[in-house]
Amino acid sequence: MTAAPHPSDPSTPRQIHLAAHFPGVNNTTVWDDAPPATGRGAARHPSLGSQIRFDSFVHLARTAERGLFDFFFLAEGLRLREHKGRIHDLDVVGRPESLTVLTALAAVTDRLGLAATVNATFNEPYELARRLSSLDHLSDGRAAWNVVTTSDAFTGENFRRGGYLDRADRYARAAEFVAAARELWDSWSGPAPEPVRHRGAHFDLTGPFTLPRSPQGHPVIIQAGDSPEGRDFAAATADVIFTRHSGLAAGQAFYADVKGRLAAHGRRPDDLKIMPGVTFVLGDTAAEAQEHAAEIRRRQISPQNALLAAEQIWGADLSGYDPDGPLPDIDPDPHSELAQGRVKIADPAAVVAKWRALSQAKGLSLRETVIETTGRQSFVGTPQAVAAEMDEFVRARAADGFILVPHLTPNGLDPFVDRVVPLLQERGVFRTEYTGSTLRSHLGLPEAVTPVWQGEAS
Amino acid sequence: MASPTPQRRPIPLAIALDGPPVTGRPAAPERFDASGHLRLVRLAERGTLDFVTLGDAFGRPGPDALAVLSRVAPATARIGLVPTVTTTHTEPFHVATSIATLDWVSGGRAGWQPEVSLSAAEAALFGRRPAPAPDAAWREAGEVAEVAARLWDSWEDDAEIRDRAGGRFIDRDKLHYADYAGEFFSVRGPSIVPRPPQGRPPVVIDATGSGPEGATVRQVAAAHADVALVRAQDPGTASAARDDLRSRARALGRDPDRLLVLASVEIELYASGDAVALAELIGDWYADGAADGFHLRPAEPARDLGLLVDGTVPVLQHRCLLRRFYPGATLREHLGLPRPANRYARAREVSR
Ligand SMILES: Cc1cc2nc3c(=O)[nH]c(=O)nc-3n(C[C@H](O)[C@H](O)[C@H](O)COP(=O)(O)O)c2cc1C
Questions:
Q1: Please, which pLDDT band fits residue B316 given cuts at 50, 70 and 90?
Q2: Which residues are recorded as binding FMN (chain A) (predicted)?
Q3: CATH code, domain with A396
Q4: 3-state DSSP call for residue B201?
Q5: Phi and psi of A320, rounded to 5°?
Q6: Angle at the Cα of A176 (from A174 to A180), degrees rounded to 5?
Q7: Is residue A374 a known part of a binding site?
Q8: What is the DSSP code string of B122-146?
């Protein structure tokens, strides 16, 4: 007797979802081979490498659409990062406001989903629900919202509300925010809007919404946050999770954990797609790809960036140390406020111990240690190898797809679309044309339904 | 002292695209897309108008005005795009970065019309605070315009250096904190968006000021507007408002010639004769020194704009009062307003 393949059997092919992340405001993005986009060098090289000019966004979005990607993704940061009390100057910085640039991209793309990261702490439900619904209408059903929450008063200094919320409050507010937004999105389903009355711990709003239910019903909801609170929030309300767990084993553990939380909310495993953010490097041979990857890491971690990475972990001024010399011999300060606007390192002493062990074992300098520990790309190899590995990750339920983060603006995705996408299609695990017009249809998500909001989680 | 008579050639001419919400698909009237607005903006661009305004309010049906004009931007080439973005209940930081982004995606064609929200019904949509009194709401609008200008200047134009040897992407001495603290809110800065192509997108303020808060509105416009709109039914009213705005601007230390006062006139065109009559009226008012230019508010944009572009515009062009093409690329260039110097760069030069 032959059994039907078990759904989690790694020999069963599964469709891969792909998204393109506009290169970030961080040291993943290599900038030193392009002239300035603004200022003196700009006129001579009008489009090359700009992180802010619209043509860069158009190029990456059109490349993603040429590759039949599910969506295009923009991150958000509402305060420029600081280090040692000064604005951080080593990485790419400066980006547009997400919803405005995505609405403009709706004019130059047809099918590609358009995902905006927008903070739930420093916005209000009525206004943001209206802006997101506008994007969904104006793009014919391609809008997504990555709901993030911010934990620092540092960012709050740019906003009326000021301050910040602790983690429990952040997610309670975010959950109520999304619930209120869904009530607004649903309120004009018939011939005329029905006034909404939402009253909760965080919001108290009344009145009619000004847009009829949008083409997707509700924009796709994405969540990026890793704490148990964040995972529960995603299980209750998100359609996609953007995660940092990109390794096979870590990915499988995360995947099982989050999918396991869905049943409690009356949802099925397929209702929530898990998409880690990943990087890639291609080469004609495995050796060439590895060499190229090492070169990219060296460029991502300049001597200055290596020192800065160490300062963030040690929580101390290390400007007296030589990046090409040994690791600092002092102990880290776990209570340092040196870096602002970044995710805090939970256990700096453990990181230092790991770095010391590695540096000693391989005889690495400070910079080489940073390159070795922080710069790893997710997929490195020939196009065949990368396609096979991605396929394997998805079959093994470490992910439902990937959010690709190119290291070059705006051409970094081109080689992937030209060389890897056709191989994924040959394997039968990636679409060969868009079959639907909305982002929900690309992601194979069910129609938007409004979960009953149960008030504050007990 | 009478203000110098306007003598701009061509005369700035703008059009309001308000009116009933435009749905693109008769078959599915419950859906809003951009096709209706896009048709109108393209038509206005064919008439080489300087800019379109698109009004907004939280209770206005349809997509928000900023979104509509962002969607329209890549599908048009030259015309200025001026959405209303409300300053009551919104975050000044988001308002400033959104308008800066519209300027980036349109290649320097953005403007911004600040408006206030005064109704209790709109306040209830937010539930954060009661509807403000008109005077307070306009003082707050002035603060938002001030902080927006600071945020737009918070990156100097040449802050991005890509200094490979030093490993520095930006020269952080050329980034500045806005450090604004006013009656209504505070904002630290700098902006997350580099200085937009126009430096500061033109601020357009309806300075008619007919209510009891009129003096405050005028004062806010005199302090912050690049273009003031004055609703008027006769040239005398427009001219008096222009004199008032210019003297307020002068008293604030501004060059009054950097504040264009446009007579905002409601129009209804049914036939080409009406379009020619409108050209006469514009020519007469202009000759009387009533205004620096005109902002026309069609009762029905879909009907009136065609007649305007095919009837009124050619007459004005024939009289050399309107241009026949766009010689410049940005909205500031269309309006003859210079790109503003960066306040922080200037301060740094002076302190050197
Ligand atoms: C993959 C990933 C991407 C994120 N992207 C953003 C972002 O673009 N903007 C932002 O403000 N926060 C971003 N966050 C931060 C989260 O919204 C959240 O604040 C943070 O992860 C802390 O929440 P947690 O305690 O649940 O992990 C991201 C988080 C993850 C894991």
A1: very high
A2: 117, 171, 227
A3: 3.20.20.30
A4: coil
A5: -80, -10
A6: 115
A7: no
A8: HHHHH-SSPPPPHHHHHHHHHHHHH
Residues with CB under 6 A from ligand 1: A 75-77, 117, 119, 148-151, 167, 224-227, 229-230, 242-244, 277
Domains of chain B: 13-116+201-351 (3.20.20.30)
A329: tokens are 């011999």
Does a structural domain hold residue A174? yes
Tell me the residues of chain B between 71 and 100 that have a Cβ less than 8 Å away from chain A: 71-75, 89-94, 97-98, 100
- Report ipTM for this prediction: 0.96
Residue list, annotated binding site of B for FMN: 84, 210
Cα dihedral sign, B92-B95-B97-B100? negative
Token look-up 């961080």 returns: A26
- Secondary structure percentages of chain B, helix, strand, coil, to 5: 40, 15, 45
Structure-token pair, residue A260: 């396991």
Token pair 């507010």 in the structure block, residue: A173
Who contacts B26 (Cβ-Cβ below 8 Å, separation ≥6)? none
Q: What is the pLDDT of residues A23-53, one digit of tens each?
A: 988 888 988 764 444 544 444 443 358 999 9
Does residue A52 lie in a domain region? yes
pLDDT at A5: 45
CB contact under 8 A, B121 and A207: yes
Residue B255 has pLDDT above 60, yes or no: yes
Give dist(CA A52, CA A38) in Å, integer. Answer: 9
Q: What is the mean pLDDT of residues A106-122?
A: 97
Per DSSP (E only), the strands in A154-219 are 196-199, 204-207
Which residue range forms the structural domain that includes residue A356? 302-374
Handedness of CA A400, A405, A406, A410 (dihedral sign): positive
Residue A449 domain flag: no
Atom of ligand 1 nearest to the CA of A117: 8
Residue with tokens 């929900």: A440
Q: Which residue in the block uniquely carries the two structure tokens 């240690």?
A: A369
CA A325 – ligand 1 centroid, Å? 34
**Is A227 assigned to a binding site?**
yes
Lowest mean pLDDT of A148-152, A207-211, B306-310, name the range.
Answer: A148-152
Question: Mutate which of B42, B90, B94, B179 to test chain A, going by most A C-beta atoms within 10 A?
Answer: B94
Domain end position, chosen among A347, A374, A401 = A374
Mean pLDDT of the region B20-49: 76
A164 lies in some domain: yes
Q: Are B274 and B242 in contact (CB under 8 A)?
A: no
Task: Count CB atoms within 10 A of the CB of residue A287.
Answer: 11
How much of chain B, in percent, has pLDDT values that exceed 90? 87
- The one-character DSSP state at A68 is T
Please give the Cα distance from A437 to A442 (Å, whole number).
8
